[in-house]
What does this fold into?
Amino acid sequence: MATLADADLTFASRPHPAPTSVEARAAVLANPGFGTRFTDHMVTIEWTEPRGWHDAVIGPRLPIALDPAAAVLHYAQEIFEGLKAYVQTDGSIALFRPEANAARFNQSARRLAMPELPEALFIEAVTRLVQTDRAWIPSGEGSSLYLRPFMIATEAFLGVRPAKQYKFIVIASPAGNYFKSGAPAVSIWVSDYTRAAPGGTGAAKCGGNYAASLVPQAEAIARGHDQVVFLDAAEHKWIEELGGMNLYFAFEDGTLLTPALTGTILPGITRDSLLTLAREEGLKVVEGRYSLEQWREDAASGKLVETFACGTAAVVTPVGKVAGRDGEFTIGGGGPGQLTQKLKNRLVAIQRGDTPDTHGWISKIG
Ligand code: PLP
Ligand code: COI
It folds into this structure.
């Protein structure tokens, strides 16, 4: 749904009148955590039905005014993305596969009946924000600037139909480790709740999916686990994914399996990148089905040697323990496995520019 207005969209630049002091910023960057601190600027772009995308601005990060009848507040017409900017070892700044995020954003937009954003505009918006707030990118090991592009329906209208007015925004947040626990491997809880059903919105990155995952996630935490894992909706048997990460299973015979993209799973960009890297490592990589029962059995027999979660926020995180109503089991020795570490190192080396980018995944932007 690109419109003529997209072609000549120019960004207005309004620098923050009172940016964060160097000292306060340094304190944030020394210990960024995840998702609680934000940079000084944001990008906003408006969309209305006849005009298409217009009024692109990079300006101070400020609260936004919304009419109380704005459609997003009632019917959750909202989508988002998550990607990271890295300070590479040579000091340059790079994004990892931003065009994949731009493409997935538009897949989500189509599912939520929202206007698509030209991919070049998505990338330009993200790039401008990173360049403006480049001093906010932490450079420590495992640190990066997490970027959160999102779109909301802003039209004041209570009828149930796609809105005719939207706002696209990009904010940025210095990020360290996603998991606070700092444990070498995470523990996950098998939920009785369902995340996504066939025909639903599971493959879209929309806020509603995450709202529905909060009770199961809170249950996992209350039981002493780090994350929730969801099974399929129809049979409650097949492993799908975690609340915010995809899963991989490594077997002693050199097979690496990840649940296939059936339409109920988010097509993770980290997942996709690891498919390629694992094949290059000589592993037999399979996108298929894996049941909870088999998982338990294979962990006990030693056939399954490792399980790891992957995603932009979590990078590659080993799973050491799985628990559910039918008891719990440990994977391998319960700690990080060698293959998990190897694949993580390969991915991070590309993101950091420590190894040649033979896949065209790195976009240098400064
Ligand atoms: N699955 C869910 C539900 C997620 O929220 C995420 C995070 O974005 C992922 C998987 C991993 O996707 P990606 O690797 O693109 O970050
Ligand atoms: C991401 O990894 O970008 C996500 O959206 C996951 C979320 C749980 C932070």
About this structure: The radius of gyration is 21 Å.
